[in-house]
Amino acid sequence: MMNLAEKLSRYAANLTYDDLTPEAIHEAKRRVLDSLGCAMGARHAEPARIARELALSVSASPGATVIGTIHKSAPDHAAFANGVLFRYLDFNDTYLSKEPAHPSDNIAAILAAAEVVGASGREIILAIVLAYEVQCRLCDAYSIRAQGWDHVTYGAFSTSLACGKLLGLTEEQLTHAQGIAGTVGNAMRQTRVGMLSHWKGCAFANASRGGIFAAQLAKLGMTGPAPIFEGEMGFFNQVAHGNFPLEIEAFGPPFMINQTYIKFWPAEYHSQSAIDAALQLRERIRDWREIAKIEIASFSAAVEIIGGEPEKWRPTTRETADHSLPYCVAVALQDGDVTLDSFNAAHLGNESLLDFIQNITVVGDAALNSRYPVGIPNRLTVTLKDGTQPVCEVTFPRGHARNPMSDTEVVHKFRSMASAYFPENRLAEMIQRCLALEDETSVTPLLELFA
Fold first, then answer.
1. CB under 8 Å to 432, separation ≥6 — which residues?
2. Confidence check: pLDDT of 85 > 80
3. For a Cys-Cys bond, which of 106, 148, 150, 422 suits 187, CB 3.0-4.6 Å?
4. Cα separation, 199 vs 152, whole angstroms
């Protein structure tokens, strides 16, 4: 009997570009464009600066591009620095299941591994689809959040397999890479509790750093603890604490990447439908100052993650604010949109906004739980000072797999974050090359466009 890591290795080793559906290929290219746009939006964030500075202190040949420069760093350092850029704004894509995830977090490590070996665009697309498949299927199997572990723990397995495939690992070496990455990659959920720190946007970047490092070690002959899942002190017993239903036979096609969602607003995904509802209500309310109170009825996961802690009503960090359901709703109602600027120092110090948030309550509604995670239902009931109560409920916000963003919208999102840095001809080339990634013989020229 093959153990789970061996089964995952066999699936990864045997998956080919010809196995991919046109829909999965197209979506992988959109996610590369979206991730690079998020990177430009986060360029001046303090954690991004710190990670970039560390990556620039190391040079490697062959190395991987630190996005925003032409410098080639060690692959694990580049994966971390670029991963922070992709993730920090909480604007990259999402998947919701028993465990939530941001599967495009895998792309930074994949690009780093691809550069080291000179992989083609088709090989990169294949690795991306593989990483999404593994991470999303793990999220479907079990909620490690319920046991106090962070969702990025699953990234140790998805990145080690995707990077290992690009590096040409055998099935046995892929299993060793999972063992190494999986043993050291268990991340504590403290990352996302209370007042959030810089690390909230860096945690998966660290998991991807471990994944590519494990794959490189395995390629050179390093063996890893086994069996990583079923062992006496392995993942099932130590992290999952019991049943872990994962059937490799159920893996795509159709591929999980097409069940994930691109974010329309730069905030934690469970808030997207609440933001959508708030903006719809704003069109019906003449002036937000006429609002006396707001009730947000939501499902258990949203209440737990972004609506249940006192810090969410008076956030002092960007990381906490974009993970605050009441904050995001208040900003949407006051400003008429939620943008990157919604979480700047001026907003965090705006006493009028902070006082307004105190009029918001978040309540769990058991009836909404049955519609999650297929949808993310949030219902806003606004009570105006004249006693009227407009209500709006949204289940599938813009960007959800059941309400997807068009290519035009994805390109617009990219431009909104990258246009401050580059002329139009450069932007047009970036967009064209990302959306024709299968034609690239190397990813380095594309990444160097962002210098």
1. none
2. yes
3. 150
4. 12
Distance CA 376, CA 412 (A): 24
Question: d(Cα 95, Cα 256) in Å, to the nearest integer?
Answer: 9
| Helical residues (DSSP H) of 283-423, grouped into ranges | 300-306, 318-321, 325-335, 345-348, 351-357, 366-369, 407-418
As a whole number of angstroms, the distance between CA 257 and CA 95 comes to 9
Confidence of residue 35 (pLDDT cuts 50, 70, 90): very high
CATH number at residue 13: 1.10.4100.10
Q: Is 369 exposed, middle or buried (0-12, 13-18, 19+ CB in 10 A)?
A: middle
Q: Is 423 helix (H, G, I), strand (E, B) or coil?
A: coil
Question: Do 172 and 235 reside in the same domain of the chain?
Answer: yes
Six-digit token pair at 234?
């392995």
Range of the domain at 166: 4-259
Q: Is the peptide bond before 397 cis (omega within 30 degrees of 0)?
A: no
DSSP notation for 20-39: S-HHHHHHHHHHHHHHHHHH
Last residue of a domain, one of 374, 394, 414: 394
**What stretch of H or E contains 292?**
strand 291-298
Q: What is the mean pLDDT of residues 404-426?
A: 97
pLDDT tens-digit series, residues 17-34: 999 999 999 999 999 999
Provide the terminal-to-terminal Cα distance of the chain, rounded to the nearest Å: 49
Is 417 within a domain? no
- My answer on whether 64 and 171 are in the same domain is yes
Tokens at residue 73, please? 């760093």
Residue 329 is predicted with a pLDDT of 98
Helix (H) or strand (E) holding 364: strand 360-364
Alpha-carbon distance of 37 to 20, in angstroms, equals 25
DSSP category for residue 238: I
Residue 337 domain-assigned? yes
Dist. CA 400–CA 258, nearest whole Å: 10
Q: CA 184 → CA 50, 113, 191, 361, distances in Å?
A: 23, 20, 16, 40
Quick one: pLDDT at residue 242?
A: 72
**305 lies in a domain?**
yes
pLDDT digits (tens, 9 = 90+) for 328-365: 999 999 999 999 999 999 999 999 999 999 999 999 99
Q: Nearest-5° angle of CA 305, CA 52, CA 268? A: 15
Tell which residue, 208, 230, 166, 190, has the closest CA to residue 6: 230
Residue 263 CA, chain-centre distance (Å), reads: 9
At 377 the pLDDT is 98
